[in-house]
Design a protein that fits this description.
Radius of gyration: 24 Å
CATH architecture: Orthogonal Bundle
Number of domains: 1
Largest sheet: none
Structural class: mainly alpha
Helix content: 55-70%
CATH class: Mainly Alpha
Shape: elongated
Distance between the termini: 33 Å
Order of helices and strands: HHHHH
């Protein structure tokens, strides 16, 4: 039996699929937040911090690449794209929050206030969303450079990565449409032979 496309599923099956997808997305965000809040971040700011930051950016790119490949072959590419955003975006934001936290701990005057984990995450989200309330602002040159880098990275993520994800969804939808409607494979019919005759 072949798998049915999303639009061929019963309303109940669709609802279960959407709920499962949203639960996976929520679990992904929850795990990333648990790691962030439990990761030991009391080491001094050094070359290892920047190597870890670079590796984190590479891991983000790898996750996006893996997710795009998954979207292209998925039977439900739109739901898969939601999962991609739910795993990739928090990963990127938490990477910047971790680095801001390390800068603040190593040089307390780097921001208008000393950052805790929630403060660093809050600052990261306000920079990414371009809200910029101004209650926390970078003061040191290093903090300002990293903030500018996050702004540029945010623009790239919103523009380029969103375009890539949307393109992957469109490719998967076109692939599914070209396959035609899903059909059930008929059970094999056995021909009677001489032993079946009574």
């Amino acid at each position: 039996m072949t798998r049915k496309r999303y639009d061929e599923l019963t309303p109940g099956a669709r609802k279960r699929m959407v709920v499962a997808s949203l639960l996976r997305a929520t679990a992904s965000v929850t795990v990333l937040l648990l790691v962030y809040y439990n990761l030991p971040l009391d080491r001094p700011l050094d070359a290892g911090t920047w190597i870890g930051f670079g590796l984190g950016l590479l891991a983000f790119a790898a996750v996006v690449t893996w997710q795009v490949r998954g979207i292209v072959v998925s039977d439900v590419p739109r739901l898969r794209a939601i999962q991609a955003v739910a795993s990739g975006l928090p990963m990127l934001l938490l990477l910047f929050a971790t680095t801001y936290l390390r800068i603040s701990q190593d040089a307390p005057g780097s921001f208008t206030e000393t950052l805790g984990r929630t403060d660093a995450l809050y600052f990261t989200v306000t920079v990414f969303s371009t809200v910029g309330f101004g209650d926390i602002a970078p003061r040191s040159e290093l903090a300002r450079i990293l903030t500018m880098f996050q702004m540029v990275t945010g623009l790239v993520v919103v523009g380029l990565v969103a375009k890539i994800l949307l393109g992957a969804v469109q490719t998967a939808v076109r692939r599914r449409e070209s396959e035609g409607p899903a059909t059930e494979v008929a059970p094999e019919v056995r021909k009677p032979d001489a032993t079946d005759r009574g």
